[in-house]
Amino acid sequence: xxxxxxxxxxxxxxxxxxxxxxxGMVVGLGTGSTAAFFxxxxxxxxxEERLRIVGIPTSExxxxxxxxxxxxxxxxxxxxxxxxxxxxxxxxxxGTLYLIKxxxxxxxxxxxxxxxxxxxxxxxxxxxxxxxxGSLVAVPVEVVQFGWQATQNKLQEVGGxxxxxxxxxxxxxxxxxxxYIIDCAFGPMQNxxxxxxxxxxxVGAVEHGLFLGFAREAFIGGRxxxxxxxxxx
Length: 233
Fold this sequence. Notes:
With about 230 residues, the protein is α/β, with parallel strands linked by helices. Helices cover about 30% and strands about 25% of the residues. The protein is globular and about 55 Å long.
């Protein structure tokens, strides 16, 4: 259960990142509870400062939220290059700023947006910081529905201890792209790049939640306020 204090940490991190948005930018809008605070903070800047930006949302959920706040939206048909993306993370590895993302179910679109961005900033609360990726959460892998059982077997072969994500209706969770998610519990990873390489070559897997080398910086909210972490080169 997320505490109200934790929500305040998330909100503080999100508001710090929102200050980096500049007039004229194309901005990637992340998905999840922390990213939702960023979308709200950005909307306030648009209303109060007449900031002119256009957003590209990473999920239908984020798109709906942005529309209610009158944030102008675009698609990749109109904007293929983004200036800046702000998104949350399920885990952040200290130093490298490697991430696990996708527990909100939007990892494919999140990675497409992140890859198309000149800069990605992560926002999170201090409970998401780990020494090694995989310490707290599994790695989500988005897979096509056809033959998902065979894909799951392949994920087992690479050590993923896979399990299909189940939605609130008791059926397999379905992403915005119409795919399933299989969560892979690798445990703490000594070499996430190697695991990412294996996942990249699993037939039937569309994308995975290891975001390595995407984040340049992270705003982390916590008991002592907001800290800015920079990626160690």
